[in-house]
Amino acid sequence: MTQQNKTLGEFIINKQSEFKYSSGELTRLINSIRLAGKIVNHEVNKAGLVDILGTAGEENIQGEDQQKLDVYANEVFIKNLVNREIVCGIASEEEDDFIAIQGNNKKNENKYVVLMDPLDGSSNIDVNVSVGTIFSIYRRITPVGTPVTIEDFLQPGKNQVAAGYIVYGTSTMIVYSTGHGVNGFTLNPAIGTYYLSHPNMQFPDKGFIYSVNEGNYVHFPKGVKEYIKYCQEEEDDRPYTSRYIGSLVSDFHRNMIKGGIYFYPSTSKSPNGKLRLLYECNPMAFLAERAGGKASDGFNRILDIKPTELHQRVPFFCGNKDMVETLESFMKKNE
Ligand code: AHM
Ligand code: MG
Fold it and tell me: Of the residues 142, 177, 198, which one is the last residue of a structural domain?
């Protein structure tokens, strides 16, 4: 059997022994995310057919309208993880507070907490553009068997034991890493099985794409403005190509395959940018580093930031190492 024929199920089992604390718990957890992803995929795929579009009439904690599918995806992931009793806590971009999972009759002996953005980029659903689920997994730091506390969730990203995303695109893919390389699996919808299609994903040596919402240009810090001008200059291998879907998972996925940098800087209106450290930036930074890339807030490594709150936002620059470093040099110069 070739690597490409391997299913995600087989891959997870083969890899289990590589994981230093492996007791099968992380395997079951990733399996559960894989299953929930299939359910959400099914619903996302028929979004144009059923009357599930539009806002649910509720606002999430950031004061943004929630799309119905956000609510749906949030419920599916939470129910899956809670019912199977494989984590001790969950934090979601769609929930104000974290959820402590106690277990039914017995004490919850599980070691892992999951943080997730159940449906990122959901404003794109109305126009049939790819959206994604982002997840991040940590070992709890409080004692096993006791209820989880906020400390279990406010860990720096470098403590992640696994992270990944599901992209609901022209094909549905799950891309994840448990620390040993980044692997991508494509769903065959006819039989509901993910196959290893992108083994050991790495950013190419050179990137030529920059992805940013340039409409915010006037509000960007000087270093970012100068970097954008640098990307547009006619010199060496520049100008770079500009590509921005406005769906982090898809923009990141394309850049990892083709080479590029994604950024959501601070703006004069939003000094911390838009993206959430725990649900969006940390898992993407973990994947980027495992794929030979880099992720920064403009000055510091994203994975070193000690979070202070669940819904914290942070400026985010992520992609090919050399591109992120060039951006950082412009930021430093203009500090
Ligand atoms: P969301 O979590 O509310 O969906 O917001 C995150 C999304 C990212 O996927 C995307 O890169 C960014 O917001 C786009 O924002 P903007 O429309 O401001 O460019
Ligand atoms: Mg999001």
Answer: 198
- pLDDT per residue, tens digit, the chain (335 aa), is 454 579 988 888 787 766 655 568 888 899 999 999 999 998 888 776 655 445 556 666 666 665 588 899 999 999 999 988 889 999 999 999 999 998 665 677 899 999 999 999 988 888 889 999 999 999 999 999 899 999 999 999 999 999 999 999 889 999 999 998 999 999 999 999 999 999 999 999 999 999 999 999 999 999 999 999 999 999 999 999 999 999 999 999 999 999 999 999 999 999 999 999 999 999 999 999 999 999 999 999 999 999 999 999 999 999 999 999 999 999 999 98
Residue nearest to atom 5 of ligand 1 (CA): 121
Q: What is the model's pTM?
A: 0.93
Which one-letter DSSP state was computed for residue 7?
Answer: B
Q: Is residue 203 part of a domain?
A: no
Q: What is the CATH number of the domain that holds 143?
A: 3.30.540.10
Alpha-carbon torsion, ordered 215, 218, 222, 224, to 10 deg: 0
Q: What is the C-alpha separation between 116 and 236, in angstroms, rounded?
A: 40
Atom 4 (ligand 1) nearest CA:
121
- Full residue range of the structural domain in which residue 93 is found: 3-198
C-alpha 311 – ligand 1 centre gap (Å): 14
| Ligand 1 pocket, residue 248 CB under 6 Å | yes
DSSP 85-104: T--SEEEETTSSS-EE---S
Distance 151 CA to ligand 1 centre (A): 27
